[in-house]
Amino acid sequence: MSRVGKYPVSVPSGVTLTLAEGAIVAKGKLGELRLPLTDAVDVTVDGNSVAVAPRGSDRRARTMWGTTRALINSMVTGVSKGFEKSMEITGTGYRAAVQGKELILNLGYSHEIRYAIPEGIKITTERPTAIKVEGADKQRVGQVAAEIRGYRGPEPYKGKGIRYTDETILRKEGKKK
Questions:
Q1: pLDDT digit string (tens) for 46-70?
Q2: Could you give the CA distance from residue 91 to residue 108 in angstroms, rounded to a whole number?
Q3: Helices (DSSP H) in the chain: which residue ranges?
Q4: Rounded CA gap, 122 and 132, in Å?
């Protein structure tokens, strides 16, 4: 039995949830998100709470019960508060800047990397070595942050590269004389 799925999702003021054509739509101050629903669960919207229940007792229905509840909770949080990922750039001469709809990264290569910022995502650089990715969709924020980090991940000897702010890098000792 799902421990996550049995709790209802509370909907804060300013967020509206509607069921439409096999999908649930959340609208809030930060945008609109849509989640297609599977046929394994039933979703009911009662004023300021949403309840999810499995349609059967098979394995798929029970797994989709908790998953659907977690996705709806992320949608509600996303359209009301939003999600953010902070990253730091470490290395001599490594820096980032936002110009228009592009993030420009200088990461020690012979060329600069231009990353087109997708729709619904906001990227800011408070300092040249700090990047903040913000948006309403938790999955897209994480995906964009992972793509940016993928250009130059942190290396274990000097720690150079792009890392998440809350990430710890296990450092290696290096050569001994």
A1: 888 888 888 888 888 888 888 888 9
A2: 8
A3: 59-80, 138-150
A4: 8
Q: Give which of 147, 158, 144, 173 is closest to 90, Cα–Cα.
A: 158
Domain architecture of the chain: domains with CATH: 9-80 (3.90.930.12), 83-164 (3.90.930.12)
User: Are the CB atoms for 162 and 153 separated by under 8 Å?
Assistant: yes
CA angle 33, 38, 39 (to 5 degrees): 145
pTM: 0.84
Q: Rounded to 5, what percent of the chain is helix, strand, coil?
A: 20, 40, 40
**pLDDT tens-digit map of 91-140:** 888 999 999 999 999 998 899 999 999 998 999 999 999 999 999 999 99
